Amino acid sequence: MTPVVSYLLLLLAAVLEAGGDALVRVGLTGDTIFVRLGLFVAGAVALFAYGVAVNAPPWDFGKLLGVYVTLFFVVAQIINLVVFHIRPDTPTLVGGAFIVAGGLIITLWRV
Question: pTM for this one?
Answer without folding.
Answer: 0.89
